[in-house]
Amino acid sequence: LPMAFRDVNARRHIGLQQLSSLALAGRTLLGPMKSYKFVVDESTNQSTLICSAVRLIESLDLTSAAGQLLNETIQAQNKEFKTGMSTLLFLVGAWSNAVLECLQQNVPVSAIVSVMSEGLNSCCERVQCLQVSIHDVNKELCSSSVRPNTFKSKACQIGCDSLLNSQTFPYFQKDISVPEEVIPINSCSRQEDDGNVNKCLVSPLGCFGSTASLVKPPGDKSTSVISGSGVSASSPNTQKLTHSRYFSTLGKSYFSSQRGNFQGNLSGQSTDPCECYGLGHLAMTLSHGNQTSMKLLQSVVAYQQERAECSGSSQFSVAEIVTCCLLGLPESYSCVSPGFVTLISPEQATVIKYFEDKPLRILLMDGDLTEQYRHLGFNRPCNVRTVSEHPGLQEGRAGDLWLSSVLDILKSFEINLVLVKGNVCENLMERCIANSILVIGSVTRDVLCAFGEVTSTQPVTYLTQLNVSCVGSGARVELWKACDGRAMDLGELLPVKIKVPGIPLLTAVLTTTVASKIQLIEDQFWTLVYRLHHALNDEKVFLGGGAVELLCLSHIQMLAEEPVQPATKNTMREFHNPWLAASATEYKSVVLQALASGWKQYLSVVMCNAGKASSQLEACTSVNHHLKKAADCGSPSAYILQEFRKGDLLRGGSGPFADHGVGLKVYDNVTAKTEAWRRALDLVLLVLQTDAEIITGPKRIQLLNSHVSSEFMFL
């Protein structure tokens, strides 16, 4: 952290300079081609691998007030949206520099605050013309000239029940590995427990050169068709179109040769193109270049949509998705597994052999399973004091009594499996293992609710509340198996799979051999999940690829070039002071140009990070070229929309991808993006208006007599 402030001098507005220095550290985190960073602790020489603004700020020792405010702002954005933090961090730095430049030109603080706020509000209104409804996005994607192709695999003719066969299932998974094709639904065992999902598992890759894997019932000789698409699987050669968050490119052939046993060609078109792949292709346009997470999410979406058609439930539910990170397996083993996959100790795993092929009685606990746990709001009796000559001995006896009573209760109800929301007493865990009772702690509320709904049970806070209606049945537990059907022995922790017939839970099993990438991979997956979630909530998306930021830049520059008008009565009424109103009008052009500089830096840095420009100068030249063409067009929004549809928006001329073909369309979240803008500017203006230091005591006299006294205002 001290290095982050190496450029901070002793002038006023230290807070803005600190914000700028902190944001500079996250410059390479912007755009689709993010650079990994190692954050090193100089005191312990330990390091952390990060690739997001959230993890960067969390890893820094923020001791300054401005740093704390920045951390709170980014955490608030992350808590609400799970996306947009890198944009927020960059704009905080860019606009902090812009405000400092305004101050150097003696622009009053009141004018900076009012004009920048007004300018951002105007931008948010202006870019509404670049919003597209979800229905229109699906319709355009499916009816475009780049249509999805569907492949038919020999493995796809294997029935769902046949997946239980240890000889056929590895073959099925082998052809569908993560980095190259489609993420499978992991169904190595107990496929019959999947309830109504037993009919057909679909794992589409969206709408652009993607693969759909269908599992047909045995004996079904009909053509493999995705519901509602009219797409049958019969063609051998297609192209895989890879694309990034901002700058799309045409990738290499999806299969450079006939890989494995995938065969087929395209036949027919969808009668209703906007419904042909559901949410799969929408997830692709929001993936921002993260292929692995995109394919995992598409498998989740396919599973949930198949279930929704049968049960009438929501087509996409974040509450039904959990993650389990496994260290020691290649990333190609990542998959989506129905049920709840979690990690347990080897000692707990010894209990599972007693549960094989047996339905278990399950108990859900909404709290800690410890002797001292009390629910939130519990009031201990007042004026009660316990006196004992041997407190240690008494405490031990009381603990033994509690452990014995808990075991007696569990045995009396014949409970085999206990899921606990909070912590579990270690001594109790050991006794439960000895009595063949599996207890799993730190289970999320969503998981408890899912098990509760499917087993018609309610979680209890204390075991003394337990009765027959609080105990569920039908749960099955087994060691989780990888794509090749082998159970995993990862050393300290073992993955276990818990299922109940009809449970809607899906676990995204994220695997890697690099310990420092575990958190990173999980963050990337959840970011994409919430992008899709917010897009469905907003029911609309922004045009991506820098379209929105380019329109903001064009709009602000047009406002800045407008001739200066005398202060109106409305302006005076707003500021309650003729001088303030006049200053806001006088400095409007300067402040708006400073605001626009933030957008220009944003676009140029994204182009450089994505390899679309070899230097900042080349990127700025490309942006200026588009601005000129947009102005000459007469309607910047029409020009940007036209370039977006052609896929030529902000394409550099000398980047490594410059000679690629027509790009694919990408989209952004509406609310998350605009909130990131507002939070960034609000933070900068807050620090600007509160960036003063109150000095009392003897140090005041020293400063008053020093050569830097002119830089302080003494009250």
Automatic annotation (TrEMBL):
Gene source species: Corythaixoides concolor (Grey go-away-bird)
UniProt superkingdom: Eukaryota
GO-annotated molecular function: ATP binding
Protein name, as recorded: BBS12 protein
One BP annotation, GO: photoreceptor cell maintenance
Coiled-coil region: none
Annotated signal peptide: none
